[in-house]
Amino acid sequence: MTLIFRISWAVGISVSPSAANVIAISGLAERSPVYIGPVWNGPYAVITSVVLIGVLFGMQWLGWV
Fold first, then answer.
1. SS3 assignment, position 31
2. With contact defined as beta carbons under 8 Å apart, do 13 and 19 qualify?
3. Considering its fold, how many domains does the chain have in total?
């Protein structure tokens, strides 16, 4: 359960326009944080979520979790 919360936080913080890392990158790129979060990091968040959910199901299937 803790692993799921940590994965959710890590993926969510990369998409949130109010996160410090997104605000910093938006300043460097001279773009709005609302654009940087969902548009640039959105595909990363979706792909990462799908892969990590697959890994968790695989670990459960193997009996590791």
1. coil
2. yes
3. 1
Tokens of 61: 């299937």
User: 10 Å Cβ neighbour count for 53?
Assistant: 12
Give the distance, in angstroms, between the CA of residue 56 and the centroid of all CA atoms in the same chain. Answer: 16
d(CA 39, CA 46): 11
- The token pair at 24 is 């910093």
Kindly compute the dihedral angle of the four CA atoms of residues 37, 39, 45, 51, in this order, to the nearest 10 degrees.
-160
Report how far residue 15's alpha carbon sits from residue 43's, in angstroms, rounded to the nearest whole number. Answer: 10
Domain residues for 32? 2-62
Check pLDDT > 90 for residue 63: yes
pLDDT digits (tens, 9 = 90+) for 47-60: 999 999 999 999 99
